[in-house]
Amino acid sequence: MERLQRFLGDGADIVCRMLTHRSFPNQRYTLFYMDGIVDGASIGTMLLGLLEDANKVTEDTEGLYTHLIDRSIAVGKIRSATAIEEVGYAMLEGSSVILVEGSLKAILIDTTGGESRSVEEPTSQTVVRGPKEGFTENLRTNTALVRRIIKSPKLRFDYKVIGRETRTNIAVVYLQGIAQDDVVQEVHRRIDQIEIDAILESGYIEEFIQDKAFTPFPLIQNTERPDAACAGILEGQVVIMVSGTPFVLIAPVTFVKFFQSSEDYYQRYDISTFLRFIRVASFFISMLLPSLYIAITTFHQEMLPTPLLISLAAQREGVPFPALVEAFLMEITFEILREAGVRMPRIIGPAISIVGALVLGQAAVQAGLVSAAMVIVVSFTAIASFVIPAVNMGSAARLIRFALMILGGSFGLFGIMSGLMVLLAHMSGLRSFGKPYLLPFSPLIVSNLKDTFIRVPWWAMRKRPIGMSSNRVPNQHRIGGGKRPDPDQEGA
Questions:
Q1: Which of 90, 228, 335, 482 is in Cβ range 3.0-4.6 Å of 223 for a Cys bridge?
Q2: Cβ proximity of 264 and 362 under 8 Å
Q3: 104/486: higher pLDDT
């Protein structure tokens, strides 16, 4: 008891109960647990069972240690430990500990619990049609949400502990026989090589295990939707869950995955295809529109119709800055407003961002600092960036936008095209756990094009994608799959 208390420190949340069993009057046992991180109902049930059992006079010749395990404790999973460090770390994870006088082993009972957030609708990836459940900060709850969707004996959960001080629990989730073995082994290898004091969110792990650090593009997908995570698992991807965050990691991933939403699979294929084209167009608008405006108004005025050119020239007549400086002022102003809207209290955040944008935009035009056309360009660019389902891909477009603005303001359309060529070459060399980032376009895999920027009907998607799964049996991972129904059959 003294060694365990020295290991954990003299904390007010450490509860110690010393008890005596009537059938073993010469032996005492002590119950240890940490208040706040254990399930109160389990502790109450266990204490009630211990006390009721202590009032019974038995003539068992077995030791108290064996008697408690076999007869008295009927709560949670039970295991034994002999090292003080192992017992202490188990308590810090929510287990209760029983020390029996005269025994060299401690009894560890899984009573993990405490206050936690309930399952709610995801806030970052909302859908109009589809499940409304989202992951929580509790790892056990998240694994149960996946189990509830994928009821397969091939579903595997490999648990690990990372962080010397935080000892954060993570789970590597995949389908055995569907996920490629080399990918699963590579995920384990990279996670095992992480050396850090603390893991507070899945973003820590993402930076450690991604293939390339110096790239604006995300190489690992994150989501807080259980249906999206399960869809990735069923296609052969590996999901990494981290205790303390609702965002799970999905790898390997390709570029097109960041433009797909869970809702695409819950509505008609033609509507889904149209929306995907809208998202791709919004990505290019968010990345290119300000630089194209700068290049055309600065170097290539002959490309504009004469009435439009005269209108733009009249608007810019009193503006003292060149188009590049004007665009940078507006873009940085909008980024500040965006960040302020996120960090401000939820009640006044939207009002500050909306009113601030309207007031500043109107005042800047009236003061002659920027033109009205530039306000329109920056506003439309900002709106287009919100259309992209993946926030990290939208952030990548925002970073690339500033580089292309400099190239457009310095070299015109030639600079923009040169930047896009360098960007395409960079993307062609990216890998996500060994998988080409531009798959299935580079290298070209025609059969995988059925679910990229377009989505064919469910009856046409017969197999899983090539290169992502080790088993391409008929794809039944969402409602659909199989052959197209015959409309001539009764009830089709």
A1: 228
A2: no
A3: 104
Beta strand extents in 308-450 (DSSP E only): 431-432, 435-436
User: Between 490 and 377, where is the model more confident?
Assistant: 377
Residue type, 299: F
Burial (CB < 10 A; 0-12, 13-18, 19+), residue 380, is middle
Task: Judge whether 145 and 246 are in contact, CB under 8 Å.
Answer: no
Q: What is the DSSP string of 68-104?
A: IIIII--SS-EEEE--HHHHHHHHHTTEEEEEETT-S
Strand ordering across the sheet containing 78-81: 14-21, 24-34, 95-100, 106-110, 78-81
Which DSSP category does 125 fall into?
S
Asked if residue 135 lies in contact with residue 145, where contact means CB atoms within 8 angstroms, the answer is yes
Angle made by CA atoms 237, 216, 433, in degrees to the nearest 5: 25
Strand order in the sheet with 248-251: 155-162, 168-175, 238-242, 248-251, 221-223
Question: Is there a contact between 368 and 319 (Cβ–Cβ < 8 Å)?
Answer: yes
Q: Which of 63-67, 87-91, 132-136, 319-323 has the lowest mean pLDDT?
A: 63-67
Phi, psi of 19 (to 5 degrees): -125, 160
Helix, strand, coil percentages, rounded to 5, for the chain: 45, 15, 40
Q: Chain-wide mean pLDDT for the chain? A: 86
Interhelix angle 269-298/413-428, nearest 10 degrees? 140
Task: Give the contacts of 118 (CB within 8 A, at least 6 positions apart).
Answer: 136
Neighbour count for residue 345 (Cβ, 10 Å): 7
Counting beta carbons within 10 angstroms of the beta carbon of residue 237, is it exposed (0 to 12), middle (13 to 18) or buried (19 or more)?
buried
Token pair of 298 as six digits: 């600065």
pTM of the model: 0.85
Q: Taking every pair of C-alpha atoms in the chain, what is the biggest distance, in angstroms?
A: 105
For the segment 272-303, what is each residue's pLDDT rounded down to a tens digit? 999 999 999 999 999 999 999 999 999 988 88
Strands 435-436 and 106-110 turn out to be unpaired
Whether the bond into 153 is cis, omega within 30 of 0: no
